[in-house]
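Subject: for your reference before the review

Hello V.,

The reviewers asked for a structural picture of the protein, and I figured it would be easier to keep everything in one thread rather than splitting it across files. Below is the amino acid sequence we used in the manuscript, unchanged from the supplementary table.
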Amino acid sequence: MGHQDRGHYARKHPEKQRDTTIVTLLEQKAENGCLKCADAHRIAKKLGLPPDQIGIQIDLAELRISRCQMGLFGYYPNKHILNPDIQISPQADQAIDKAQTNGRISCAQCWELATFLAMSRPDLASACEKKQIRIKPCQLGAF
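And here is what came back from the structure prediction:
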């Protein structure tokens, strides 16, 4: 969904229903209609739910996700915090190539790779961007 869909995220899930318990937790953490990616993941962990289920409830609550932990979006005034000049180590280069499929790598795989390679998540995302590998899908369903 693009910026033109702002405020209409629930349309992505016409068959789903709001869970008032989850939405209340989300709204308590939200600021100005935005919920930080890290807060969404903390709520998922606290409730023992997969992140995509929390993402659906975020959409149904018409909240925006901000401050992506991969650094891909939600950083005002810039859209993202990626470093286009990152130097990619041979180990990271090889690991990213091995993990990607058809020029894509999932957010969850990126988290695992970042831990394995002892890199920050935004640095790993910067390396993927530099290698023209798209990070998709998002664990919360934002992209």
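For the response letter, the relevant points are probably these. The helical segments are 20-29, 37-47, 51-60, 90-99, 107-117, 121-130. Residues 92 and 117 are 7 Å apart (CA to CA).

Happy to draft the paragraph if you're swamped.

O.
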